[in-house]
Specification:
single chain; 809 residues; Multidrug efflux transporter AcrB transmembrane fold; 4-stranded antiparallel beta sheet; 25 helices
């Protein structure tokens, strides 16, 4: 029989490794050392654009936009005071504005009432200066200033709220940063907050796009300045995409570091309870830590970044990889305690569980590899390298564990204590054995009802993703974002590039009027789920200039009809000393940007809105004019939606591949498929419960099923593998269930407790998404264990009542 031959090969391998432990360990650790050597070269990038492949069209468009127009990320500092238009408030605002200009790194521009563009004409002369030019030396009538500001459409919902109660400082980050080569290693990054990245070349200065590292430095400096200026009657709020994402990244990374340590402690506790031996704790950790380090080395070798998706890899590999060692050691210690020599116990353990461990690792890796088909590099890398970590843990377990056991002294435990502990575990397992084999049909009849329940509530679920809701309500970052978002009618921006593809094409009145019409249309959008708070475009500058050159008459706040006049007015604006046009149009005046300000709403809604914009601009301009939607906000929407689609695809791919593996293991198509459906029940049931409880089905929640499908099948495979072995010997289903659960059931119980506990500890994380992911994934693992302790034995009992009554195993 093929299985028996494979088991025999594993037994021979056990003898070989036991007799050559030092050679084995030397070769393995040499291989590990080669991989670990590359770890300092790994790059950490938790920015949104890092989620995309480098050749992704969206990323290329975003980079082209930054190359042309500079930064596209906006940070807003809101100023709340009893009276914004008072001398005292403006003095404080000016001091804060100047400190931000002087002290903030990586900033392209700082704009507020202090330096707001004021376009005016005196006779035939155009003046473009600061709104408060010469103040406070030149007195300002505060009432007139307030009236002037609130009447200017460029100021309102930009640097001042409609009701005049909130002033804002708008900070635009730089597109690029120049830094000295960073030689910090990944290990120091792990200790210091994952905030550094390795240098990519040896030049004195490295020029690269503004990244998470620079954003963190900028936000640290900003918070220090804000803290220095904030007062009871001068309250400051900070928000914007970079501000929120930086806090999200910071808490995610700090939580992961803490939880990694807690997870390690929990694993130690459970395997110490299971084995009650120092070797039973130390040896598995040598293997899983070697696997974790090797995986990071592989990432460095292949140039894969550590992103917010792959930052969970160390904890995941440790939690999942430990199961292989537990299954082998459980059999080894039992045989060794029964009187086998170390060599025979090792050989038997490999022969007994080696094939099952291989199959379960392959199924777990298969489930993870289903992510590799994603169009997002972060998700694809998560799939590839987590699968690599699982397979490395398998290889190290099969090869290193026998060699380590050969050289580590192991003593027999006191028989009386061992028997008492074993008897207590047996009583616990016998409860499930009796229940599942005595009432199998009742148990099986429950399954269809649970599936119907699950399908109904799953059908009620809608996809959603709102990062701001991940923060607890007490967090200032959430309070500030919601407050400023409501006051200024949006804090996120979408960029549109209109390219006429010819020099001076922007001077065409037809093009400018199309921009103006579409601007008015956008600013009229005020739906329940989405509105546009503000649109900034080159027509704002042109209309201001035209009005100023016509005696500041508001009736001339229009676009001239002649292209020559348009060209002349733009020239006059540039000659006035203002540099605003440089940030809104290219030097050839062939292309221009339009900035659309929207509220921070569900990214699913934003992605849908961006698609509407794409159609809207495509229809508004002729075929010879190219329009591109870009910016950080569309990228966030694109990445989340693609991630969700990837998760959905991964369900199907993983189910098909793992079903094939299950059929091969069981040796019977119908029984294998039935076993696979059994594994879907816990996942469907948990997602159904989430639907019933109105838990948002966002990217984090979708990951539950994608990751769980590769995990829950492991216990079923171990059960099926061992049941078939015992059934072929005894021909009795009840006895085979008993032998299976009393044997491998211990390891199944402990590995499931270890795995679920490592997910449950995410419930103490700061952010709500981690709580949801940890709680419900942990529940899936527990339900999967119950299914293998109750439903799987019930299926076997019904199908194999007596020898020859069921399909051959």
């Amino acid at each position: 029989m093929l299985k028996r031959k494979i088991e025999g090969h594993f037994e021979q391998l056990g003898h070989l490794l036991f007799r050559n432990p030092y050679k084995t360990l030397f070769l393995v650790f040499s291989f590990i050392a080669v991989l670990v050597y590359h770890i300092p070269g790994i790059i950490i990038d938790t920015s949104s654009e890092s989620m995309l492949h480098e050749d992704d069209p969206f990323r290329i468009q975003y980079n082209e936009f930054r190359d042309q127009f500079g930064g596209a990320n906006i940070i807003i500092v809101g100023i709340k005071a009893p009276n914004v238009f008072s001398h005292d408030c403006l003095v404080r605002l000016k001091a804060l504005h100047h400190d931000l200009e002087k002290e903030l790194p990586y900033v392209q521009g700082v704009n507020s009432l202090i330096n707001a563009r004021n376009t005016r004409g005196e006779g035939d002369v155009l003046y473009v200066d600061d709104l408060l030019n010469g103040w406070p030396d030149n007195p300002v009538d505060m009432a007139s200033l307030k009236e002037q500001v609130l009447k200017n459409p460029f100021y309102v919902n930009n640097i001042i709220s409609e009701d005049g109660t909130l002033a804002a400082i708008v900070i635009e980050t730089s597109a690029f940063a120049e830094t000295d080569p960073d030689t910090a290693s990944i290990l120091s990054d792990f200790e210091d907050g994952f905030e550094s990245s390795a240098s990519e070349d040896e030049s004195p200065k490295t020029r690269h796009y503004f990244s998470n590292k620079e954003n963190t430095e900028l936000m640290d400096a900003l918070h220090m300045i804000v803290k220095r200026h904030e007062a009871k009657d001068f309250s400051l709020a900070v928000t914007g995409g970079p501000a929120v994402v930086e806090i999200f990244n910071r808490y995610t990374l700090s939580d992961m570091k803490l939880l990694f340590l807690v997870a390690t402690g929990i694993i130690i506790l459970f395997i110490a309870i299971l084995f009650q031996r120092l070797s039973g704790v130390v040896l598995p950790f040598i293997i899983v830590y070697s696997s974790m380090a090797s995986t990071l080395g592989l990432m460095a070798i292949f140039g894969a970044y550590i992103t917010l998706m792959t930052v969970v890899l160390p904890t995941f590999i440790v939690a999942v990889g430990i199961a292989d060692s537990v299954h082998i050691l459980a059999i080894f210690y039992r045989r060794f305690q029964q009187g086998d020599s170390k060599e025979d116990a090792i050989s038997y353990a490999l022969g007994h569980s080696g094939l099952a461990v291989v199959l379960t690792s392959v199924t777990t890796a298969t489930g993870l590899l289903s992510f590799s088909f994603s169009e997002l590099s972060a998700i694809a890398n998560l799939g590839v390298f987590s699968a690599a970590g699982v397979m490395l843990a398998l290889i190290y377990t099969i090869i290193m564990l026998p060699a380590l056991l050969a050289i580590v002294p192991i003593k027999l435990k006191k028989t009386v204590l061992e028997r008492k502990r074993s008897a207590a575990m047996d009583r616990f397992l016998m409860f499930f054995i009796k229940l599942s084999t005595t009432h199998p049909k009742k148990i099986l009849w429950m399954c269809p009802f649970l599936f119907v329940f699950s399908f109904y509530y799953i059908s009620q679920i809608e996809l959603t993703h709102t990062i701001i809701n991940y923060f607890p309500d007490s967090f200032k970052v959430k309070q500030d974002a919601l407050f400023i978002d409501s006051k200024l009618k949006g804090i996120l921006t979408v960029e549109v590039v209109v390219d006429t593809e010819k020099e001076n094409g922007i001077y065409d009145p037809a093009i400018l009027n199309r921009i103006e019409r579409i601007t008015r249309h956008l600013e009229s959008i005020d739906r329940e789920d989405m509105f546009v708070g503000k649109v900034f475009s080159i027509t704002d500058i042109l209309k201001e200039t035209n009005q100023a050159l016509h005696g500041n008459d508001p009736d001339y706040y229009t676009i001239p009809r002649d292209s020559d006049i348009i060209a002349q007015e733009f020239l006059l604006f540039e000659n006035s000393g203002a540099d605003d046009l440089e940030e809104i149009a290219d030097s050839r005046f062939s292309k221009t940007r339009i900035t659309i300000k929207i509220p921070w709403v569900d990214l699913v809604i934003i992605d849908r809105f961006v698609n509407e914009l794409r159609d809207l601009f495509s229809d508004a301009f002729p075929e010879n004019v190219d329009t591109t939607i870009t910016g950080l906000t569309p990228i966030m929407g694109k990445t989340i939606m693609e991630a969700m689609r990837s998760m959905a695809r991964s369900y199907v791919i993983a189910f098909i591949v793992i079903s094939v593996l299950m059929v091969v293991l069981v040796g019977n198509f119908k029984l294998g498929l039935l076993s696979m459906i059994l594994n879907l029940l816990p996942i469907f049931l948990v997602i159904g419960i989430m639907g019933l409880a109105n838990v948002p089905m966002d990217l984090t929640a979708l990951m539950i099923g994608s990751i769980a499908i590769g995990l829950v099948v492991d216990d079923t495979m171990h059960f099926m593998y061992n049941f078939s072995k015992y059934y072929n010997i005894t021909g009795d289903a009840h006895q085979s269930v008993k032998e299976t659960l009393l044997g491998t059931g211990r390891a199944l119980l402990m590995t499931s407790l270890i795995l679920s506990s490592n997910f449950f500890i995410l419930m103490v994380a700061t952010l709500k998404n981690s709580f949801v992911f940890g709680f419900f994934t942990g529940i899936v693992v527990i339900l999967a264990l119950l299914a293998d302790f109750l439903v799987a034995p019930a299926i076997m009992t019904v199908i194999f009542r007596r020898r020859g009554s069921g399909p051959s195993l």
